[in-house]
Amino acid sequence: MGGLLDGKIALVTGVSNEGQIGQSVARVFAHNGAGVGIAARSQKNVEARAKELEAGTKVLALRVDLTDETQVGQAVERVIAHYGRIHILVNLAGGLTRYKVAVDHTLPDWNAELNNNLLTAFLCSRAVFPHMRERGGGCIINFSRAGRPQANMVAYNCAKAAIVALTQTLALEGGTH
Fold first, then answer.
1. What is the pLDDT confidence band of residue 89, given thresholds at 50, 70 and 90?
2. Model-level pTM?
3. Catalytic residues, which ones?
4. I need a surface site. Which of 26, 56, 99, 130 has the fewest CB within 10 A?
């Protein structure tokens, strides 16, 4: 009996630690027949997550800093070389790392939070977008907490609101694909 996603290839970010949403998404995709590439900064973590997923599935572990444009491009190319294409991108990398009142945020705090939560989604989306367009389409799934800002999370809140604008812009520019 075939899976719902047989023949589909997904790249899922945000799988560094057991129990993260990215790991759960990757597990569902893999167990429904998709080939899955998972990305994390730590080689040890991404290999551990791949091992957790591999029972009867196809998983490609990618050690990549998703804030580095070159590494993102190389990771996307590795998935394409391994599986032949990418049908689905799931942007879940990021997280809250700077928890303090807005006036105490430094510029490095601001940049780090936006890089981890917005730049990663932009770079990954931009890297897969031409590939998907050339092959007749694909699906980019972004996650956001926009609309539910909380105190002491200014940069994180702003990054997540910007994810909505990124998603809308990509839909406008590539909706026909």
1. very high
2. 0.92
3. 156
4. 56
